[in-house]
């Protein structure tokens, strides 16, 4: 019903890890990849995307790395997912092949409230909610 890409999963965990490291903490892509047991190359791509989308700052060099631009309590899981995967939309058809009129869909009254609850939960869950040990 709802899936997220491996990149958005990695992004959420990487930002939660950066947030748990403390205010102003700078970590390299290598640091984050090791902690999350992921490829350094993929981690670097995701971190660069997050920097491009304005969730991270980055610098190169010996004192370089990545750090959060905002307090982790101000960054929602939904914001992170959308930074990587684009805007979230409710699926149009639960069965995958709409052949009926959407107004008369037998799932219409079921899925609308569920989708709203999911979207609200993703919006209200902040990076600071994760219990990640540094």
What would your notes on this structure say?
46% of the residues lie in helices and 6% in strands. With 134 residues, the protein is mainly alpha-helical. It has a single domain (6-129), classed as Arc Repressor Mutant, subunit A (Orthogonal Bundle). The chain has a two-stranded antiparallel ribbon. Strand 1 (56-59) and strand 2 (65-68) form a beta hairpin. Helix 1 packs across helix 3 (40-52), helix 1 (6-20) packs across helix 4 and helix 2 (29-36) crosses helix 3. The protein starts with 5 loop residues before the first helix and ends in a 10-residue tail after the last helix. The model has no long low-confidence stretch (mean pLDDT 90).
């Amino acid at each position: 019903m709802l899936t997220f890409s491996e990149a958005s999963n990695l992004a959420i965990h990487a930002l939660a890890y950066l947030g748990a490291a403390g205010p102003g903490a700078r970590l390299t892509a290598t640091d984050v990849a090791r902690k999350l047991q992921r490829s350094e190359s993929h981690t670097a791509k995701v971190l660069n995307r997050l920097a491009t989308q304005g969730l991270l700052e980055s610098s190169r060099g010996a004192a370089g790395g990545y750090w959060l631009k905002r307090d982790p309590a101000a960054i929602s899981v939904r914001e992170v997912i959308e930074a990587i995967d684009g805007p979230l939309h409710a699926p149009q058809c639960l069965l995958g092949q709409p052949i009926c009129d959407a107004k008369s869909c037998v799932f219409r009254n079921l899925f609308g409230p569920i989708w709203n609850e999911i979207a609200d939960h993703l919006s209200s869950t902040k990076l600071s909610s994760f219990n990640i040990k540094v």
